[in-house]
Every structure is written in C-alpha cells, then in structure tokens.
Amino acid sequence: MSRIIAHLDMDAFFAAIEERDTPAFRGVPLVVGADPLGGKGRGVASTSNYLARAYGIHSATPISTAWRLSEEARRAGKPPVTFVSVDMPKYERISEEVMEIVRRFVTKVEQASIDEVYGDLSGTASYDEAERICRNLKKAIVSEVRLTASVGIGPNKLIAKIASGWQKPDGLMVVREEEVEAFLSPLSVRAIPGIGPKTEALLREKGIRVVKDLRDVSLQQLTHLLGKRGAALYDKAQGHDDSPVEEYSEPQSIGEQETFESDTLDSHTLFTQLDSLARGAMGRLTLEGFKAFRTVVLTVRFADFETKSRAHTLRVPSNDQDVLKREGIKLLMPFLDRRENPHRKRIRLLGVRLEKLM
C-alpha cells in the first residue's frame, strides 16, 4: 500500500508571532534572537523574517554578523533590522495551539519540532483528497492563530519535508510518487536533509552539484567518499525513506548550552558554567519524566566557531547531578590543554547533553 505523508512547517514562526502581536514590527526586517549589543553581542539569530533573510540573515547566523549585515543595509539606504528577544514560553504556547488544530484534520501526527509536524494521510482516497485536507488545515491555522504555514505532500517524510520548503511562505506543494525523480533531479544537493556546507563542498569537488549528479554515483563510491553517511545519502538521492510517522516520540536527548559574554579559557568561569548547565539539564530530565541517563555529551565551540563534541557512556544509568558534573569535568579538562586544544583557543560556547534516557 502506497503512503501519503504531509509535512507542515510554520513560516518564520518566532518572527511571524512577533509581527502578529506587534504592528510596528510588520513590514520591517526582523530578527528574533540574542541581543546584538551594537555588534558585540554573543549568540545567534533564532529566526528571521523574509525581509531579513533578503539581507543574508538566517537561523543560526551569529548575532554579530546579523548586526553587521543590518548596518550594511542601512548604509545602502535600506531599512535596518529590528532585533527582538526570544520569548520561548509564548512560542511554545502558540505551538500547542497549532498542533491541536493539526490533530483535528489529521489523526496520526508526529511533532518534529516546535514549528513543524508530519501527518500520515495514507488513509485518504487520493493525493487530491490529501491536498484538500491540507488546504483546509492551512486556512484554519490562519483563521484561528493568524499565522501561515507551508505544506509539502509526498510518498514519504523525506519528499514531504523537501516539498514543504519549496513554495514558502504560505505554500502547498504536492509531489506524487511518479514525480519524485523529476522533482529531486534539478535540486541542489543541499536540499537533501543531512547535507551541510562541508559535505556540499566535498561533493562539489567531485563534480556533484545537483541531486541527479548524486543519484548517478554508485553506492560503493558514495560510501568510500562519505563513510556510513554515504549509504543514507544514496537512499535519499533516490527519494527513498521508509521511516514511519510516529505519533509520540520521546526526546532522544536533553541538553543545555550557553554562549559566554566574552571568549574565555578561564577554568573557574568554565567550571561555574558547567555546574549551571548540569543543574539545568537535570531539571529538564525530571520535568520530562525521565528517571536516569547513561550518556553525557559535552559540546565546546571555540572563538573561531570550530565545534567539537565528546561523549562518555556510564556503565550503569544515573540520576545523580554530582555524577553528571564529574563526567562533565572529565570531558572538559582536555579542552583546557593541548589534548583537545593544542592552539589554546578561547571557548565561545559550552553545552551539556544527556542521552540514552530512561
């Protein structure tokens, strides 16, 4: 039996909420994220509206870069960016409202993040019926929460997700099973989830620029080039994805991270922050209803944005904050000397993540 899967993605979600709630923000470039502090701010942009994206500001753009791009636009006679702080409790509340609407139209759904959800419409009579349902769903979201969403419909989650980004904002794209190859072929390899700038550059060196080029590479060649990831990308290039829509998915990990006001290698500052992150992670572990963790992951981002993660898995599960702090310190110590930091680079961000939750 063939499947029909929809992927709904809210348009510039955080920024759209702020525009909806504050009329002065409408029609101007808007970035929701860290305080830019006149170009000296830390952290990143969480979301930008489409006017700010035209300046080159996207999710995860360093906030200092966003400020610089805004100033360049201002000097060119264009409107500068308005920067707004993140209001996560409000965004989570509105996300819940959106998900309640989705569940009225689609019985089997999987929330993938705060602003995106998959729906299994395989029980509908046809793609035409699935499209009708999704158009009505989009209208309901506009009517009830005054926000727009883009939807992709396809034979699996992969195609649905790519399609949902195709006609943003407020788009709806249907890719039937027989249309998959023609749909994917001309797209940049970056359209494939899991291919970032580094992999794109590596593939470009081999003359692989669009998905059709990727499809023409053998599984053996791709595995040789990219290791284990090669096999997964080979399947994606063919448009294959048999992952199910799971109605409830427990968090695979729980984490906390913090960007420092200024880059540092001061051990006291780092250990104090590590202690705070450990407390925050343990608090979230309890809040989510988990009893214990087995794996501790430490993430370090240097001043030049190079990012490294190191992990340790305990022999037995633990729910002890002191154990978490001790393991975090063990993972952090090599970054304070030449083992993990031979050039003595200062640290910009520290993160702690718990995995193998139970």
Helix-strand makeup class: alpha+beta
CATH topology of the largest domain: Dna Ligase, domain 1
The end-to-end span amounts to 35 Å
- The tally of strands reads 12
Radius of gyration: 22 Å
CATH superfamily of the largest domain: DNA polymerase, Y-family, little finger domain
Number of separate structural domains: 4
Classify the helix fraction into a percent range.
Answer: 25-40%
Task: Write the SSE topology.
Blueprint: E1 5-10, H1 13-21, E2 30-33, E3 45-48, H2 50-53, H3 63-75, E4 82-84, H4 88-105, E5 109-113, E6 116-120, H5 127-145, E7 149-154, H6 157-164, E8 172-174, H7 180-184, H8 197-205, H9 211-215, H10 219-226, H11 228-237, E9 253-264, H12 267-287, E10 293-302, E11 307-318, H13 321-332, E12 347-355
Parallel strand pairs: 2-4, 7-8
Antiparallel strand pairs: 1-6, 1-7, 2-3, 5-6, 9-12, 10-11, 10-12
Please, could you describe this protein's structure?
The chain is α+β, with helices and mostly antiparallel strands and 358 residues long. The chain folds into 4 domains: 5-11 and 88-176, 2-Layer Sandwich (Alpha-Beta Plaits), CATH 3.30.70; 15-84, MutS, DNA mismatch repair protein, domain I, CATH 3.40.1170.60; 185-237, Orthogonal Bundle (DNA polymerase, domain 1); 253-355, DNA polymerase, Y-family, little finger domain (Dna Ligase, domain 1, 2-Layer Sandwich). The chain has 13 helices and 12 strands. The protein has a 5-stranded mixed sheet with strand order 5-6-1-7-8. Strand 10 and strand 11 form a beta hairpin. The longest helix is centred in the last third of the chain and has 21 residues, at 267-287. It is globular.
